[in-house]
Structure formats: structure tokens, C-alpha cells
Amino acid sequence: MEKTNFSPFLFSFLFLIFSLELQTFVLSSLPKPSSISPSPNNSWATQAQNMSKLQNSTILNLALRLEHVDALASGLSSEELLSLQLKRDAARATYIFARAGQLGSSFYRGNLSLDLTNSVMPFYAGYCTLIGIGTSPRYMKVLIDTGSPVTWVQCLPCQKCYSHIDQIFDPTQSSSFRPFTCRSKVCRRLPNSKCIGRTTLCGYQLTYEGGSFTNGEYGSETMTFGEVKIEDVAFGCGHKNGGQLSAYPEIVGLLGLSWSESSFISQIRDRFGYQFSYCLADRFNSSQSSSIVFGPRWVSLKAVYTPLIYKDDFYHVKLEGFSVGGVPVPGIKSKQFKIDLWGHGGVIIDSGTTFTMLTQPAYIALRDAFRTATSSLKPAPGTSELDTCYQSSGDDVSQFSVPTVVMHFKDADVTLSANNLLIPINDFAKRYCFAFTGTKSKMSIIGNVQQQGIRVVYDLDQEQIGFDSGTCV
């Protein structure tokens, strides 16, 4: 083959052009994380606008405030909230294990009585944010869900909905709504898609354990986050939504953030990159706020990363063990967290599960090691699910002297504080319980209590999960 020679002049010219072109993509830095802290006197819409005022079409980041769903359940005592959290976790575990092909006869060690037919929806847990939908944005609260491949909201006309009619999106009032045809590529790659009746419109249907479901038409729409508009976001317009959802009528839908082609994070990757992170504040500390950031910003050099080891709708990581007080827990082996040849087992990180669920032998070993290390604390009665509890003389968890607990992932050690280990379960008796539980499933789930105070980074370009304790402010 003849070798091509370039003159020095031509090489210099091309180098200059290439250098100039690169410079056109240099972007200015965004504000530090503290700039997204909401003012308690602002509305959700105003807060969303304030967080995005400096953002434009060339931004690398999109920052949103998060609110825990328990803040919407006003008037409930700690005991009532705990009961609701446990029911949500049981329903969500059923949903996750079933979708992962790991459905067994029991998930909790205890005797939690849960009628899933009349349960809360399994995705109605965790944190919600505010988005605007439509040409003239209608702002509504949606849950963020790292285990869902589809973004959807309730829509008019509504055959069955649970939110107030004035909170539901009406696609006929938006000039930017575009339904997909059932032969489109977008529709064909959607799970359980089909034509609606005898039309050519794309229909979506998501079915959850216990008979809960949402279905309707699948289309695209402009979504607004403060002053940032994102066009042509594919989402489900749910005209029929079943399940016992009256506890949270303010929440109109869901923002799907799973590792799938149809998820929201996959749709915006060309604009913000294939990465997002969130910081979940201690839900029992009203002075703190939670946030989610789409884009690579606000990750320090101190962040540690563990690889994603299995690609589906969930985020699978390799958990190798725990240590308590600097001592490895002897009863926990890495093989207890492995995915077998049939795809069973493993560990996922989930935004919607409250308490970390460990496969039964690992849970018992960790619980017993924690009990031994906290033998000087005053024990208190537990529950069938949370069986390790303590009596406090103070008003918060800082009154406890607890050992350091570390989760050992492949290439990443994550240290848990007292707020990640103990949660209040009683308003007046000042009882705190160990925030882990056991499951008879082979799969374990890292819940959001253990993620509090740590920026969790989903770097999908590099196929890894990061943990950064230095930027969660």
C-alpha cells in the first residue's frame, strides 16, 4: 500500500484548526452544590427555576431538588411511617425480585402481613422531584426510580386515576405532544409495548406485583426543569392507573432512571452525558435538603468507584463483605452476594428501597456483629422486621456511640455513619433500630437509608457506581 506523506505546512494548518475547534467546547464552571439549596419560602416551581437560572443550551449539568415521599404523608406518627415504609419495602422487593426472576415465597425474616392486592404501589417509595410537562408547562411531582425503564405521568382523559383532576396532564392542551406509532423503533424497544386497539398508536403497559398497573399511550413531549427545556422526551401518558395510591395524591407519575435504552437518563445522554448523581439528606433532619444532578459535575477526587457487573434494568454491584469496628464480619462471604449461572442472587443499589435487605445468612452475621459491638447500649423492644433496637436518652441518633460499619464493594469501601445505621421508630419512647433487614431471596438490595449523606454517582459511560462523601452538602 502506498504511504501518504503530509507536508509540514499542511500538518500545522490542520493542527491549528483542530485546536481552535476544541476550544469552542470549553464551558464555564457551574455554581457549587450549595447553590441548589432551596429557600423554605419558595414554591417548588420557583426553586426549580432558581437552580437553573445560569444553565443554558450548552450546560453540562441539570440540578433538581428532591423531597422524600414521607414529607407528603403529613400527620403520621413515627410508628405509622415505619409501618408504611416496611409495607412499601415489601411491595418493592416483590416487584424487584419478580422482575429479576428471583421471586420466592418470602422476603422478610419476620411475619409482616401484607396484602399486596391493596398495597401501595411498589414504586411509591423514596424521593420525588418537580418537572414541567407540555408547551405551557404544567408542573407536577414525580418519583425518581433507578429501577424503572419508563417515565410516565397520569393523563387525561382518565379512565382510572388517583390524583386530583387539576394535577393531571392533558396532552390535548399541548402543541408539543407527539404520540408514537406502534411500528416505530422507540415503541418496539419499549417493554410490553403494543398497538392501542385497532389504531396504529403505541401503547405501553407496566404491571406490578399485587395487581397494580399503569397503561396508556406512549409519546414524546417537552419537559421543563426550571428554565431548562428538553424536547422530545419519550414517556408514557397513563390513562388507566390501578393500585392503592391515595396516600400520595400529589405525586402524578415517575421519572425512570434505570440502565435501559428507554429510561430518562439514556434519552438525555447526548446533552448531559451518561451520568447522574444524587445526595440524599437525612430525612429526620429538616434543615437538610436532597438533590439530584444530571451530568458529571460535583464529584470530588476522593470519590471511590465500584464496577457495574451485570446490565439490565437494575444497577448490580459486587459486594464483598462488611466490617464492624474495623473487624471483618466472619460470617459474611463474598459468595453470598454473587450472581449465579442462572442470573439469581447478586446485589443492587436502589433509590426506592428504604432499608438495606441482605440475604438471610449475611444479615444475621452483620446483626450479631453489630449487637456485640454495641453491648454497652441499652436494648429496647424491636419489631418482627427490625429486631435490633436501642433506647436513647437524647433527641437524635448522635446520642449513640456506635462502631464504624464499612460496606466493602469491589475496589470501594463505604463507611456508614450513625445516621445510616439507626433510625427512630417511636415519637415519645426515643427508640432507634438497626436499619437493615433480612430476606430469604438470594438477591440483596442496598437501600436509601444507607445512601444518606453520600453522593452516589451513576457513571454509565464507564459502567461504574461511585461513592463520594465529600460533596454531599
Automatic annotation (TrEMBL):
GO biological-process terms attached to the record: proteolysis
Catalytic residues, chain numbering: D145, D350
The keyword Kinase belongs to this UniProt entry's keyword annotation: no
Pfam families: TAXi_C (PF14541), TAXi_N (PF14543)
Stretches of the chain forming a coiled coil according to its record: none
Domain Peptidase A1: 127-468
Residues spanning the signal sequence: 1-28
Gene Ontology molecular function: any one: aspartic-type endopeptidase activity
InterPro entries according to UniProt: Aspartic_peptidase_A1, Aspartic_peptidase_AS, PEPTIDASE_A1, Peptidase_aspartic_dom_sf, Plant_Aspart_Prot_A1, TAXi_C, TAXi_N
Annotated SUPFAM superfamilies: Acid proteases
Keywords: Aspartyl protease, Hydrolase, Protease, Signal
Gene3D superfamilies cross-referenced by the UniProt entry: Acid Proteases
Family from the record: Belongs to the peptidase A1 family.
Protein name from the UniProt record: Peptidase A1 domain-containing protein
